[in-house]
Write a structure and sequence with these properties.
Elements (H helix, E strand, L loop, with lengths): L7 H13 L7 E12 L3 E7 L4 E7 H4 L10 E12 L4 E14 L1 H16 L16 E6 L4 H13 L4 E6 L7 H12 L7 E6 L13 H9 L4 E5 L7 H5 L2 E2 L3 H8 L3 H39 L2 H44 L1 H6 L4 E3 L17 E6 L2 E6 L8
Parallel strand pairs: 3-5, 6-7, 6-8, 8-9, 9-10
Antiparallel strand pairs: 1-2, 1-4, 2-3, 4-5, 11-12, 12-13
Helix pairs in contact: 4-8, 5-6
């Protein structure tokens, strides 16, 4: 006999009806550890896990508002509700009506135990943290080569400083072999000499998904790294052992890129300000030097042979002027004295007498005859007049008694 083919809807409705009518599934209480916790506008979605199995759960808002504490990944709880089928995808899940805390989960206890152990060994000591280089030339990013994390880091890094070289080291960031791959990547990078800083990155996830970053081998590899390591795992609220042992914890992978890669615009602004300051200092120094040079030029000029020559030339000019004035004064004075003497001489000149109608008598030797005793009769004499002269012969000489 050939079986009748059922529609998917029909078989799903059948299974749902079976489960809804099951007296146990209609009201169950399940103990487990919360994983993949997501708070949504419609309710809380999570998975209950134990060492063997997992069960999807949802608590809608009608019951969520009755919850008096916040659920967290790794938390051990007891969930009461019913299990039924979600017809849209044919999966069954626990529709939680109440949640009670059942203590801390195993992973959380393991996390705290390892954290306490490594802290006692000094792996978290702040004085052992290596400084993150301010101007890295090459940054190695240890992460999954696919996904938003590496894209965000590369995008932010190139936006902030395109000259920084990004070396992507692909590793598994989830699963049983992830920790070994992360350790191997750190060991390989530490054999290189061109890597300035390492970003160990992974996106958000449940405690189980990010557990490789809580493993002791990863923590010891990070601690042994000679190259500074920045841990950027999960969201801001997620903390892993790698965050504590790394040289720096970034709240998110994107924040790690913001922290590690220097913003070239800041340097450009600093360079511009320094250039402006340098130019101002240079201009100020040039002005001071120019002023000093002008002062030295004045001193040099005042002490130079040129200036001394000019001073001497000026003195000579002054002396020449003084000399000329003095000579002119002397000349004028002597000239006046000369004219005065001429006037005196003229007034005393015998020739001047002629103008007044007198005559001068000269002998044959052109000597003035001033007395009658100096001449003899028949002697030839010369008589000078104001307008000429005449010769005469003495006819008779007589003198006054």
């Amino acid at each position: 006999m050939q079986l009748k083919a059922l529609e998917v809807r029909e078989i799903t409705e059948y299974i749902k009806k079976m489960m809804d009518n099951d007296i146990i599934l209609r009201n169950v209480r399940v103990r487990g550890e919360i994983s993949n916790l997501k708070y949504h506008s419609t309710g809380i979605y999570f998975t209950l896990k134990d060492e063997v199995s997992s069960l999807k759960c949802v608590m809608f808002n009608d019951y969520r508002k009755l919850l008096n504490f916040t659920l967290e990944d790794g938390m051990s709880v007891m969930v009461t509700g019913k299990i039924t089928v979600y017809e849209k995808n044919g999966t069954y899940q626990l529709y939680a009506q109440s949640v009670q805390s059942d203590g801390v989960g195993a992973l959380y206890l393991a996390f705290n135990k390892l954290k306490e152990k490594l802290q006692k060994e000094g792996l978290f000591d702040s004085d052992k943290k290596k400084p993150i280089p301010k101007n890295p030339k090459k940054i190695a990013v240890v992460t999954s080569p696919t996904g938003a994390v590496i894209r965000d880091i590369i995008t932010i890094s190139k936006r902030r400083n395109p000259t920084v070289d990004i070396l992507v080291v692909p590793v598994l960031v989830q699963g049983s072999s992830a920790a070994d791959e992360i350790c191997q990547a750190l060991e390989i990078l530490n054999k290189r000499s061109d890597v300035d800083v390492i970003i160990l990155a992974r996106g958000g996830g449940s405690l189980e998904e990010i557990w490789p970053f809580n493993e002791e081998k990863v923590a010891r590899c990070i601690h042994a790294s000679k190259i500074p390591v920045v841990s950027a795992v999960g969201h801001e609220t997620d903390f892993t052992i790698s965050d504590f042992v790394s040289d720096l914890r970034a709240p998110t992978p994107s924040a790690a890129a913001e922290i590690v890669v220097p913003d070239i615009k800041v340097y450009q602004r600093e360079i511009f300000l320094l250039k402006t300051k340098l130019i101002a200092l240079m201009i100020g120094e040039l002005k001071r030097k120019r002023k000093d040079i002008e002062g030295l030029k004045k001193v040099l000029y005042l002490n130079s042979p040129i200036k001394k020559s000019e001073i001497l030339r000026h003195k000579i000019d002054n002396l020449k002027t003084s000399l000329y004035k003095e000579m002119l004064s002397i000349y004028n004075r002597k000239k006046n004295e000369f004219y005065i003497l001429i006037e005196k001489l003229n007034s005393l000149s015998p020739l001047n007498v002629l103008t007044r109608g007198y005559t001068i008598v000269l002998d044959s030797q052109e000597r003035v005859i001033s007395t009658v005793k100096a001449i003899n009769p028949q002697e030839e004499i010369k008589i000078m007049f104001k307008d000429g002269e005449a010769k005469a012969v003495i006819s008779e000489v007589s003198s006054y008694e």
